[in-house]
Amino acid sequence: MTGKTILLVEDNPDDEALTIRALRKAHVSNEVIVARDGAEALDYLFAEGHYQGRNTSVQPQIVLLDLKLPKIDGLQVLERIRADKRTELIPVVILTTSKEEKDLISGYRLGANSYVAKPVDFVEFTDAVKNLGMYWLLINERPPLKGP
C-alpha cells in the first residue's frame, strides 16, 4: 500500500512494541514510522531535523498519538498538525493511557479524529488496534493531501 504509512508517536518502548505487535497480529502490514517524542514527530511531518529533505507530499495515512510525550506533548503536536495546511487533514487518533476528562476534551477541541484509551489487557488492546487499522486504513476515505 504505497503511501499508507502509520506514524506511531510513542515514547514507551513497551507500548511501542505492543502496538506494532498488535498491528501485525491484526494483519496490518503498513509501514510503521515510530517517533519517540513530540519533537521527532513534528520533524518527520514537516521534514525537519533528522528528516530534512523527506518528501512532505507523502504523509502518513494516520497518526497514532500518545499524549504524555517528552520534549513536546501530544496535545501540542496535535495543535501543530491542525495548524499547518500540509498536515491539517491527516487523521489523528489519540492512543493513550490517559483517561483524564481534560485530555479527552482538549484532544477533541484541537481536532483529534478519535480518542482511544489503551486497554491494559493485550487481547483487548489487539482488538482495539485491529479496529483502528480496519477503519482508518481500509474503510475511511481520506481527502488527498497536498505537499508544499
Provide the β-strand percentage band: 5-15%
Please report the total strand number as a whole number: 5
Calculate Rg over CA atoms: 14 Å
Strand order of the largest sheet: 2-1-3-4-5
Poorly predicted runs are: none
Number of helices: 5
The N- and C-terminal alpha carbons lie at a distance of 23 Å
Mean pLDDT: 88
Main beta sheet strand tally, sense and closure = 5 strands, parallel
Q: Can you give the helix content as a percent range?
A: 25-40%
Outline? globular
SSE run: EHEHEHEHEH
Structural class: alpha/beta
Oligomer: single chain
Please, could you describe this protein's structure?
By secondary structure, the protein is α/β, with parallel strands linked by helices. The chain is 40% helix and 14% strand. The chain is built from 5 helices and 5 strands. It has helices spanning 13-25, 38-46, 74-83, 101-109, 122-139, and strands spanning 6-9, 32-35, 62-65, 92-96, 114-117. Strands 2-1-3-4-5 form a 5-stranded parallel β-sheet, with helices on both faces. Helix 4 links the parallel strand 4 (92-96) and strand 5 (114-117). The mean pLDDT is 88.
Question: Can I get a quick summary?
Answer:
With 148 residues, this protein is an alpha/beta fold. The protein has helices spanning 13-25, 38-46, 74-83, 101-109, 122-139; strands at 6-9, 32-35, 62-65, 92-96, 114-117. It is 40% helix and 14% strand.
Question: What are the main properties of this structure?
Answer:
single chain; 148 residues; alpha/beta; 5-stranded parallel beta sheet; 5 helices; 40% helix
